[in-house]
Design the sequence.
């Protein structure tokens, strides 16, 4: 069984480059969203614990099955110098059930989340968007900037975090890119003049990172940090007064910004946008919120693409995790 470690993901990126990897990933996610109805889907299985959540995210179509194990513990960085979000995942063959690959998915989650944000923005944000604001400059933030920069001509990145060390870290990592970096003193200043706003903060409570009064012009809001019951980032007035697009309504009603709006609330899902069944854009429809919580399909896409690239470039190690034997009924002989 192929096993991919963090160094293997790094090798893949070094082989093909950030831009190519991101563009391939955006295409792969888009391709999979086009076959949305072929997937067997369910909301993720969440185990809520003190200060966090641990989730299992399975999905399959006729040929492959994947699952991701992921946590969300916002206190981790301060309390134990561990990441807020950590993940591993597996890809298997449906016909036989044989596991194909086990992979690190902490880094892959950052890639797939940013690629999904960029895919949603490709359809929903004004084509000429140039100013990106990122509120929350932790682990996901650089990936967010990069993915947007490959789809839009981003000239200015405005950024804010309550932790100034996180702001400095992000600026240091991004200084090599051709973009004006504008540090801001608060979220209100950060969103001034922005065309696209990503909120990617972590705190397990109802926060109001953005309220209606702060939004002075129509804008695409890519809201990522509200992804759990009791954990949101936007005021309910802002959500009520905007067009909202979600990944999978059944899951988003439990976990997304729309948890404030009650069980009967309905809005389009991303596959309807990608398949052009619903046509929305900030330029003609006003402020649009992509209320992203993360969905298993995006994990499937990143695992599928990364497996193909790992095979193509001979990256990763084969580990003896699944028995291979001439008499498959003689398992006992292995021990
Ligand atoms: P992180 O802990 O590395 O970074 C979060 C940052 O938010 C921290 O630097 C923190 O100081 C900052 N922050 C907290 N409250 C803030 C506030 N009120 N104003 C400004 N900054 C604030 O976490 P991460 O891995 O970057 O993830 C960020 C969030 O995104 C988490 O809530 C996580 O659950 C979520 N997430 C969502 C998806 C998705 O698919 N939607 C995927 C990955 C992560």
Sequence:
């Amino acid at each position: 069984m192929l096993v991919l470690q963090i160094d293997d993901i790094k090798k893949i990126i070094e082989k093909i480059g950030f831009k190519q990897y991101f563009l391939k990933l955006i295409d792969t996610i888009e391709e999979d969203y086009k076959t949305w109805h072929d997937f067997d889907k369910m909301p993720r299985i969440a185990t809520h614990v003190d200060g966090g959540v641990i989730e299992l995210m399975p999905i399959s179509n006729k040929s492959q099955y994947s699952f991701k194990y992921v946590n969300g513990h916002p206190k981790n960085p301060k309390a134990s110098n561990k990441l807020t979000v950590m993940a591993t995942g597996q890809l298997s063959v449906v016909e036989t059930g044989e596991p194909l690959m086990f992979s690190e998915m902490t880094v892959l989650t950052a890639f797939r989340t940013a690629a999904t944000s960029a895919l949603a923005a490709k359809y929903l944000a004004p084509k000429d968007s140039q100013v990106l604001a990122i509120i929350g400059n932790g682990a996901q933030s650089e990936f967010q900037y990069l993915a947007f920069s490959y789809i839009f001509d981003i000239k200015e990145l405005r950024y804010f975090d309550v932790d100034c060390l996180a702001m400095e870290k992000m600026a240091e990592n991004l200084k090599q890119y051709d973009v004006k970096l504008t540090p801001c003193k608060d979220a209100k200043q950060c969103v001034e003049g922005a065309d696209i706003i990503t909120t990617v903060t972590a705190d397990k409570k109802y926060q109001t990172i953005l309220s209606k009064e702060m939004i002075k012009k129509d804008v695409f809001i890519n809201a990522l940090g509200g992804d759990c019951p009791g954990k949101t980032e936007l005021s309910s007035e802002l959500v009520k007064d905007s067009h909202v697009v979600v990944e999978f309504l059944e899951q988003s009603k439990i976990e997304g910004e729309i948890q404030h709006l009650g069980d009967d609330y309905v809005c389009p899902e991303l596959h309807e946008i990608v398949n052009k069944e619903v046509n929305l854009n900030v330029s003609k429809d006003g402020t649009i919120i992509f209320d992203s919580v993360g969905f298993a399909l995006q994990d499937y896409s990143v695992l599928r693409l990364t497996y193909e690239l790992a095979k193509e470039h001979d990256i990763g190690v084969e580990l003896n995790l699944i028995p291979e034997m001439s008499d498959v009924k003689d398992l006992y002989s292995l021990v």
